[in-house]
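Hi F.,

I've been meaning to write this up properly since the lab meeting, where we talked about keeping a consistent format for the predictions we share between groups. The idea is simple: the sequence comes first, exactly as it goes in, then the structure tokens exactly as they come out, then a line or two of notes. No screenshots and no reformatting. I'm using this chain as the first example so we have something concrete to point to.
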Amino acid sequence: MMHIVKTNLLLCLLALCSSAASASDCDLTVSQTQTDFGTFNRGTLSQAANGTQTNVIGKKSSMVTVVCPRPEKIALFYRSASNGIGEGYQLGDIAHISLVASDAQADGKSVQLAYQQQGGGAPTGAESTLAIMPNIGVSPADGQPVTRFTLNLTSVAAVNDINQHVKERKNLNNSGTLEVVSE
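Output, unedited:
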């Protein structure tokens, strides 16, 4: 039996809003209920170590916590429109956002993360940091049932390469859902 818990994430004018949601089995919370990248212009894009300009608007982190009343196999998914290159999500029509999971713990112990396909199956890979990709979730790499799962979720907003020279004001929005799926 599969259970889904949803938390809405909304990125408006570079603001990431989240709220906790729960279902009968697991509770999902996100520590930062508001993440705002503020306003920017081409002159405020990040500088790389070698002095060249990158497309990064900003990075923000929050802690995600899943608590289940009994041990369950779980995976986290983010549902939103893909940016078309497979590793991020649309942010308005000129930018994208990537979500990176790291520092995971299952029942108080550090664990590696693995990719989880929708519909179940064994997790694949074992990394300390993974990007949350469209239609692919992240889960504890060992695939063991857990009652408490935490991870750091970093949102990285960036302007698409071809849009670095856009001059008009743009609203950058993203609407999606963070879900925990349990078996």
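Notes:
The CA atoms of residues 102 and 120 lie 22 Å apart.
The radius of gyration is 17 Å.

If this format works for you, I'll send the rest the same way.

G.
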